Amino acid sequence: MTRNEVIKNCDESLLSTISKLYGLEEYQIGLISPHDGGRNIVYICEKEGSKSKILRISYLNDRHLEDYLGELEYIKYLFNHGGSVSNVISSLNGNILEKVSFNGNTFFVSLFENAKGKRLVENNFKYREGAEITEYYYNCGKVLGKLHQLSKEYTPVHSRYNFFDKYNENYIDELIPDTLSLLKTKLKEHIKTLKNLSRNRENFGMVHFDYNDGNYSIDFDNGQITVYDFDNSCFSFYMFDLASLWTNGFGWIQFEPDPIKRRKFMEDYFKIALDGYRSETEIDEYLLDKLPVFINTSIMENIVDTFEVMKNNENDPVCDEELMYLIKCIEDDIPYMGFFSDIYSCDTPFEFEVWSV
């Protein structure tokens, strides 16, 4: 089904069925606009005198009951052990996940507390009044460090997939067009590099896998960050989330024309964020030295996700400016997502010439 077809089903009577399952009959339910690549239908549920809630309806057929239960059980574990996340709300049947059949289709439904505060973009990328921006950098690392520390003690009942279950040579061959032969070769080499890294409970476990300022809200009264959207969570290296934490710093300095100043800012930013992270848990220096490897892993994930979206939407593969930039970074072995290299332009950040596949 397409997104519009699902929304039509919701409008007809699917939302009414779901409302009864969760006791939402008296709530005003409004559709939330999707972000690029969004794979779910998401609604905000509001009622005067009650805390707002987020309703998620999953309709793509590439995930199974086990996947959704693994995600939701992990979120509840984090919340119950002090992680700053939006908790899962059970249905009136006591289930954290409801499987709903409608018009011959199956939907997986879940409900969450709405995180207190706003996303940075909703606050015009201004941090809270009277506080240094360094507090935000530190808190970003601290909240992530707490989640990783909890993950080190986590034993799932329903397990999410392992990074290498998805990111492997066969899937790269299947997904990436043959016209991008160099990219395919480079990605396969990168996967081999990752497979050769040591994996143990201290460096490999459940991670968010999409940790960025679009997936958490900030309470601008006290700076507290609440994380949500664990839809991509999986078992992977903790360094993957740390690489995402590093790239989160781009936005504060991306229009600076001097690469030396950009590099200095990123060093200072990441040191503060890493101090916050280490206030909750440790990361091996050996793996920290592999930061460029995991930044490339983040690029690989971005490339794979982009081609998946095109495939799900049945679109012919096209490399736009942003995708072409990422491809060039991988094909030409340009480190740090090209942020300190000639490929980068502060006038058109993270863009390269368009090329049809």
Q: Show unreliable segments.
A: none
Radius of gyration: 21 Å
Structural class: alpha+beta
- How many helices? 11
Shape: globular
β-strand amount: 5-15%
The number of E-state strands comes to: 12
End-to-end Cα distance, whole Å, is 26 Å
Order of helices and strands: HEEEHEEEHHHHEEEEHHHHEHE
Mean pLDDT: 95
Largest sheet: 6 strands, antiparallel
Helix content: 40-55%
Fold and architecture overview:
The two termini are 26 Å apart. With 357 residues, this protein is α+β, with helices and mostly antiparallel strands. The longest helix has 22 residues, at 291-312. The chain has helices at 3-22, 65-80, 133-151, 163-166, 169-175, 181-195, 238-247, 259-278, 285-288, 291-312, 321-331, and strands spanning 28-31, 40-46, 53-58, 88-89, 98-102, 105-113, 204-207, 216-218, 225-227, 234-237, 318-319, 355-356. Helix content is 41%, strand content 14%. The strands form 4 sheets. Strands 1, 2, 3, 4, 5 and 6 form a 6-stranded antiparallel beta sheet that branches. Strand 2 and strand 3 form a beta hairpin. Helix 3 runs antiparallel to helix 7 (238-247), helix 3 packs across helix 8 and helix 6 (181-195) packs across helix 11. The radius of gyration is 21 Å and the shape is globular. The model has no long low-confidence stretch (mean pLDDT 95).
Summarize the entry for a quick read.
The chain has helices spanning 3-22, 65-80, 133-151, 163-166, 169-175, 181-195, 238-247, 259-278, 285-288, 291-312, 321-331; strands at residues 28-31, 40-46, 53-58, 88-89, 98-102, 105-113, 204-207, 216-218, 225-227, 234-237, 318-319, 355-356. It is α+β, with helices and mostly antiparallel strands and 357 residues long. The strands form four sheets. Strands 1, 2, 3, 4, 5 and 6 form a six-stranded antiparallel sheet that branches. Strands 7-10 form a two-stranded antiparallel ribbon.
